[in-house]
Amino acid sequence: MRKQLFAGLLAGVVALTAMPMTTHADDRPELVIAMAAMQRAHPAIAESNFDSRVIKSVMDGLLNRDWLGGPNGNDGTEIVAGILTKWDRVSDTEWDFKVRQGVKFHNGRGMTVEDVAFTISEERLWGEKALQPHSLASSLASVEIVDDETIRVTTKYPDPVLLHRLAHVIGHVVPAKEYRELGPEAFAAAPIGTGPYKWVRMVADEEIVLEAFDAYWGATPPLKRITFKAVPETSARIAGLVTGEYDIITSIPPDQAELIDREADYETRTIEVENMHHLTFMTGCGEENEACVRKSAVHDSRVRKAMVLALDRKKIADRLWNGMAEVPGGPNWKMFGNLFDADREPLPYDQNQAKALLTEAGYDGKEIVIAVTAGYYVNGDRAVQVMMQMWEQVGLNVRLQFVENWSQMRPYGWQDLWLNSSNIRIPDPLTPFWWRFGEPSASYQTRKVVAVSDDYKRVGNVLERTLDEGTRIAAFREGLDIWQRENPAIIMYRPLEIYGVRKNIKWTPYSFYWMDFRADNFAIESGS
Questions:
Q1: What pLDDT does residue 133 have?
Q2: How far is the CA of 184 from the CAs of 105, 132, 179, 199, 449, in angstroms?
Q3: To which H or E segment does residue 63 belong?
Q4: Mean pLDDT, the chain, whole residue set
């Protein structure tokens, strides 16, 4: 009934209020995008499904993934030039890169080779006193300036994915002098980049405004202004789209997509995103040793496996995502190419086996606490509530604890598992298998929330430090065996991102959360 009333409201108002996007004297439109939430968009750590949407318009990457012209469609598996225009592997651990000339920062200063080197330097990203440490920089040993147009990157070991590292957030080019003077936090409040749009302002939890940077080295930005609005309620985002208040909206649940698709001037655009929703187990001791003090039940791998087996994950995914979301056999995705294990099946739904494992583990009904940040993930709350019923059926005593925001999760250790997600940062098995769960500088390791076995660590090191593809394939197969034995997390599914878009907008969403409005990915259809 509620959906019918809302649909009737939309049908009534759209005919009266639908208006074309605002245009100005320079004939470029303004774009208004409504998102479910908003965060500060720091260029080196902007990986959430909200700040990722903003930062790509502000920052250029050292390298880029070819989202529009790659051999596999828009999965971005191929690397193309960005601020770095050419590259050559000098040895197994040395690369030379040519730096694009004639590039300006948003403050008008010309970009130099020093800025490029600083962007991925020890000082900024990976040294003991780094301004903004990042696990993606873990392989870097040194960055040297060869001449005014060339840098040399040396890695600590043969790195099979260096180019993809530089195409992710650590490669967002920043001005060295200004970044040092401001420091990471102040810089994040108003980042300065070389991208097609410059930062104008942010009103916390309300909006971020960008404007065209007409000194951009590439094609002229097609938009005069982009405004990102924080609109938490899905119904408000949909209503705002079809009444002309917003031009694009994000995070639409599948069961509400029809409200947009039946309108003449609007449509949904859906893509499987490079992310997996999962429930992370507190297998470590936590930041204050609490999980070990109270002897968390999920420290026993048999209890963890039982919790996986008790869930009909396919049924949950099919019902929540209309059969479009995939439940994988571990962190294993087709985009990994030859390293993808096509024969790998997920652990089955088997409540009898789950009960047997709990008996074997001597589980005595000890409370297991699951924490969920309410409303953060599309369909996340609903999925967990269904899981609660399935766990109860096998005799698990699970208590659901909602928190209002991520800060209330800290310090980690009071919860036994929590709803989270992991970006598949690059099209390679290193992520999230290693960079999220096992690599020493990964967040789960530094916060002491996940403890993986020596076998897990051995496999991760082989994946990260080996150039030979055959060796890496064998290591990943073994790693998936270990994953399904240790179960550091319950992978729910790889989610979909459903955008609501005005039909006259020619824009292609990428499989990562980046929203790109450069000239090659945005236009208004003529006559619209």
A1: 86
A2: 17, 7, 7, 16, 26
A3: strand 63-65
A4: 91
Please, which residues have CB within 8 angstroms of residue 417's CB and are 6 or more apart in sequence?
A: 279, 280, 281, 282, 298, 307, 368, 369, 370, 371, 490
Could you give phi then psi for residue 19, rounded to 5 degrees? -135, 150
For 275-493, which CATH superfamily applies?
Dipeptide-binding Protein; Domain 3 (3.10.105.10)
Going by pLDDT thresholds of 50, 70 and 90, the confidence category of residue 71 is low
The packing angle between helices 351-360 and 301-309, to 10°, is: 160
Class of domain 60-184: alpha beta
- How do strand 266-272 and strand 496-502 relate by DSSP bridges? antiparallel
Domain 1-56+195-273+495-528 and domain 60-184 have a common topology: no
CA 417 vs CA 316, 329, 411, 500: distances in Å = 18, 20, 13, 33
Q: Computed over its alpha carbons, how large is the radius of gyration of the chain?
A: 24
Q: What is the 3-state secondary structure (H, E, C) of 351-387?
A: HHHHHHHHHHCCCCCCCEEEEEECCCCCCHHHHHHHH
> Which token pair is 470?
């055959």
What's the pLDDT band for 422 if we cut at 50, 70, 90? very high
Structure letter (DSSP) for residue 75:
S
pLDDT tens digits along 341-400: 999 999 999 999 999 999 999 999 999 999 999 988 989 999 999 999 999 999 999 999
The strands making up 140-147's β-sheet, listed across from edge to edge, are 84-91, 94-99, 150-155, 140-147
CA–CA separation, 250 vs 63, rounded Å?
26
Domain positions in the chain are: 1-56+195-273+495-528, 60-184, 275-493
**What is the chain's length?**
528
- Residue 477: count other Cβ atoms within 10 Å of its Cβ: 16
Question: 1-56+195-273+495-528 adopts what CATH topology?
Answer: D-Maltodextrin-Binding Protein; domain 2 (3.40.190)
Pair of tokens at residue 503: 């039909």
DSSP string across 122-187? IIIIISTT-SS--GGGTTEEEEEEEETTEEEEEESS--TTHHHHHTSGGGB---HHHHHHHHHHHH
